[in-house]
Design a protein that fits this description.
Blueprint: H1 9-34, H2 48-65, H3 86-109, H4 115-140, H5 146-149, H6 152-171, H7 173-176, H8 183-208, H9 227-254, H10 258-280
Helix pairs in contact: 1-2, 1-4, 1-6, 2-3, 3-4, 4-6, 6-8, 6-10, 8-9, 9-10
Length: about 290
């Protein structure tokens, strides 16, 4: 195991959980917008249980990230450098997204269906979530860490959101959504998005993985993970992604929703392996 990555489990948990919550929100928000009712938005998708779950998962991710901080009490000063720090911007958009999702949950719980207000909050929440992932990507794309400098980082982060988010929403749709007979259609849409994300993940692996990808970053120091130690992680991830595709096929053949759950578990294992490798590739120039 990599000594660097083994110390970064809080960041692995934070990035994957927050990206899952964001990706689920994107899919459900898109489904709501595409199936607007007479009121101007579809409350069968943007339900209180779903929005509460998004806020809960995002809050859990934020709490886990505190275990990475050497001095957690100093976190209150993180917003002091918005002009120059991508970390400050990441936290700002993280808080903004949580607040907007919580506001939507409050409106839904009170049945305060004000279409114009909901549209504005929904648009702001989508914008905040996109800017959150952009800020997270830019935070890691350091000049001093060549392995993270290129497309490998944003493709990995956005890819996780598009893979884990839709699948998490699909397998829990019967619990957190109120769409009844449309559940199958929603799960089909989630599967299509996830399959596209798997294609993106595989392309990212073969094209941009530092050290071995076709468009790989140039080696910077002798501390980078050697190729023979990278391949086992990629092989395990590819195996898990292949298993997810198999479960999609079985779901298409039988219609059994539990195959979606198995696909989510397989994809989750793949993304954990991929994110562990991401931190294992850390190699800093200079001192």
């Amino acid at each position: 195991m990599s000594g660097v990555a083994s110390k970064e489990w809080p960041l692995i948990g934070f990035t994957l959980l927050s990206q899952t919550a964001v990706g689920a929100f994107w899919l459900v928000a898109g489904a709501s917008i595409c199936s607007e009712g007479a009121s101007g938005w579809n409350s069968r998708y943007l339900t209180y249980p779903f929005l509460a779950a998004v806020v809960a998962v995002f809050s859990l991710a934020a709490a886990i990230s505190f275990f990475h901080l050497g001095r957690p009490l100093r976190a209150v000063f993180v917003l002091n450098n918005l002009k120059q720090s991508w970390l400050s911007r990441e936290i700002l958009f993280e808080l903004a997204f949580m607040a907007l999702a919580a506001w939507l949950a409050f409106l839904v719980s009170r049945k305060a269906y004000q279409p114009t207000l909901v549209r504005v909050i929904l648009a702001l929440a989508i914008a905040a979530s996109v800017l959150f992932l952009v800020s997270m990507s830019k935070l890691y794309m350091l000049r001093s860490v060549p392995a993270w400098r290129g497309l490998y980082t944003p493709l990995s982060f956005f890819g996780s959101a598009f893979l884990l988010g839709p699948l998490s929403a699909a397998f829990s749709s019967d619990i957190v959504l109120d769409i009844g007979r449309k559940s199958g259609l929603f799960q089909n849409a989630a599967a299509i998005v996830a399959l596209a994300a798997i294609v993106l993940a595989i392309l990212t692996m073969f094209l941009f993985t530092p050290g071995i990808g076709f468009f790989r970053a140039k080696k910077a120091t002798l501390l980078e993970l050697p190729a023979e130690k990278i391949y086992p992680y990629l092989s395990g991830r590819l195996l898990c992604l292949s298993a997810a595709v198999l479960f999609f096929f079985l779901y298409h053949k039988s219609g059994g929703s539990w195959y979606i759950t198995l696909a989510f578990m397989s994809a989750g294992a793949a993304e954990i392996a991929g994110r562990y490798l991401f931190f294992a590739l850390y190699s800093r120039l200079g001192v």
